[in-house]
Design goal:
The structure is a single chain. It is built from 2 helices and no strands. It is mainly alpha-helical and 53 residues long. α1 packs antiparallel against α2.
């Protein structure tokens, strides 16, 4: 496992936001909202993976 709880938290946040992207896409909401959530999800996942040791 990891000693870095912030990395695990960032990965969980990224996965949560990714679920929101999928949900919003199924509901047919604005593409701008979906894009913003997707970018935030990607950033959170990337930073979580980079912090993982």
């Amino acid at each position: 496992m990891t000693n870095s709880y912030s990395a695990a938290l960032l990965i969980l946040l990224g996965l949560f936001l990714l679920g929101g992207v999928i949900s919003f896409a199924k509901q047919g909401l604005s593409k701008m909202i979906i894009t913003a959530l997707g970018v935030c999800s990607a950033l959170a996942l990337a930073s979580g993976v980079m912090r993982w040791k």
